[in-house]
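Mods, move this if it's the wrong board.
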Amino acid sequence: MTVPVVAVEGVSKRFGAVQALRDVSVAFNVGEITALIGENGAGKSTLMRVLEGEHRPDSGRVLVDGQPVQLSSPRAAHGSGIRVIHQEPEIIPELTVAENIFIGDIKARGAIFLDRADLERRSLDLLRTFGVVDVLSPGQRCHGLSPALRQLIEIMRALRPGARLLAFDEPTSSLTEDEAQRLFRVIRRLKADGVAVIYISHRLREIIELADRCVVMRDGSRVADEPIAALDEQRMVRLMVGRPVSDLFNRKVRALGPVRLALEGVTTRRVDGISFEVRAGEIVGLGGLVAAGIGLVPEDRKQEALLLMQAVRDNVSLVVPDKVSRYGFFSRRRERALVVRHVAELRVKTPSIEQAVGKLSGGNQQKVVFARWQARGPAVLILDEPTRGIDVGAKAEIYRLIESLADQGLAILLISSEMPELLGLADRILVMQSGSISGELPWQEASEEAVLALAMRSDKKAIERRVS
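Not the wrong board. Structure tokens:
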């Protein structure tokens, strides 16, 4: 039997009253992609920090090539060939691609000069190996690179010293579909080269497409370790949260009010003749359009919605200066009362409203964005990928919140690339294809097959746009 590259045996870890890991045992094998899934708080991040040398287990052990090791620091983990690629790549923007890849291992020519020729040669070798020489060059500055390209640089940096276990933590949360597919090609190349890969994601379809095996964690324990062929999305959700995916939605028929948002023949460089309406109390699903306007919960909450270093209080009260003032003067008492009320209503899990938003989980960060707009009370709310990067349990809470806002009479435009989300929430689904609305489906007629048929339907105008 082949000895695993890395394994944990009976690992437990407690933080005060919280038992983060409970007797966890799992092995990671040569040339195998192991998906690691579970809700926030299931223990995934703690397990990664044990493997990365940030946390030492209270009991149990870590083995490399079958031998027990003490991973007392990230340096020790790197020395054992274990690297974790985090959601936010650690890239120095002022340096070049080559300098970032080989930081700490740049050869000198003479006493004071960098050997630029050697640096470029080694960088080009890596870029060619991973098929990214068309999008990255050794001398290119890293300032302004997309998240996908920053991630590729960190992967190459991790592999340079000879990583044997590479873990990816939500790697596609901010990537386009094309960028995600490029990353998958790189990961498959790593697998073919014999690297053991851990893939952590809330996107279950990605896992089914990519992984060989799936380890499921719940409440700090490993509850399943099965080949991917034995699993589907429904079973994964049931293992993670103990209930089927259908229970995440609460389909109901609402009485609709007046039109709150209307577009008539809107045409830009990217869209052609867009017309639709959204009524009070209605959830209209839309795929493919990047919207702007009224009350907006954007796709990238960290970059576009939240002040991560600021408190929950500041983030919620940001758009309601009139509601936290009296006679034109700011009132801390009014602000606190307003924020406390909305944080409680949305069940935001935070030690206090003074907690920095950046320290909250993804699901609770998203709730803070919702609390901001609930405090403002807009007539229309545009939700752009509202559950991106959020675990299944937190998704269920966000779904209940969206339904509650519709019950209160908000007109909601839901933009989502997740088919179950559109099918489970929307009263109507408008399907976009090549910049136009190719069809509309009431929820009673909507199915994955019907949506995909409209999304892939081509007409004369779409063909003409592509040719021109």
